[in-house]
Amino acid sequence: MKYKNIVWDYNGTIVDDAKLAVDAENIVLQSYNKPPITLEYYLKECEMPILNFYKKIFDFEYYDFKEIADRFFFQYDRLSETANVFPEVRRMIAKFSEKGCRQGVVSGFETARLTSSLKKFGLEKYFCFLSGSDDIECGDKSSRAVEVLKQYNFCPEETLFIGDMYHDYETAQKVGADCVLIAKGHQGGDVLRACNVNVIDSAEELENMLL
Fold first, then answer.
1. Exposed, middle or buried: residue 69 (CB in 10 Å: 0-12, 13-18, 19+)?
2. DSSP secondary-structure letter at 104?
């Protein structure tokens, strides 16, 4: 196998939570007397940092982003019992482990939520490291990725990033690693393919590609 190291994104890549995020968002929007969004709108317009997405809905001369984010995460946490890991991703994580690959997670998800969620799903045992964000804007992950790969001696040329958004590709580029994006998360396949990046429809395709 070409890659000795696999670095996963979390939300929308390991855990299937795009619809959950839209449901939580619509509760928040209702609290501000704003119209709901559709999943289709979300998959087209969502981007990182997440503040850029919210700017399409809220005028921050009049609204406080932290308040909106706090309301969102309250609803997300309340609804999160309905979320689950993509079954095919769980299988691939186990297969990579069997092949002796080292694996890690670099996520925009807040650190405590990331750790708790992985433990809930019984996946933490597969990962050398978990790098979550303490920034409510879920901002640029690339600087954290550079640091954590150095810390754990992940050679970029032997590392593959797997994510669901264009920012995961940008992060891999910053590190100097390859990247595959799975079009089942928080950005639609049409959006990702328009960026001329390596996109697959399901993690099942990784087996034929890599193993």
1. middle
2. E
The whole-number pLDDT of residue 211 equals: 81
Angle between helices 142-151 and 166-175 (to 10 degrees): 50
Residues facing 106 on adjacent strands: 131
Q: How far apart are CA 201 and CA 207, in angstroms?
A: 13
Cβ within 8 Å of residue 178, ≥6 positions away: 3, 159, 160, 161, 172, 198
Q: Which two tokens stand for residue 150?
A: 């150095």
Q: How far apart are CA 196 and CA 75, in angstroms?
A: 34
Burial code of 145-173, b = ≥16 C-beta within 10 A, e = fewer? bbebbeeeebebeebbbbbbbbbbbbbbe
Strand, helix or coil at 14? coil
pLDDT < 50 regions, the chain: none
Question: DSSP letters of 105-129?
Answer: EEEEEEHHHHHHHHHHTT-GGG-SE
The alpha carbon dihedral of 173, 175, 180, 184 has a sign of negative
Residue (of 152, 94, 145) closest to 122 by Cα position = 94
The pLDDT score that the predictor gives to residue 47 is 93
**Closest of 37, 34, 44, 89 to residue 200, by C-alpha:** 89
In single-letter form, the type of residue at position 162 comes to I
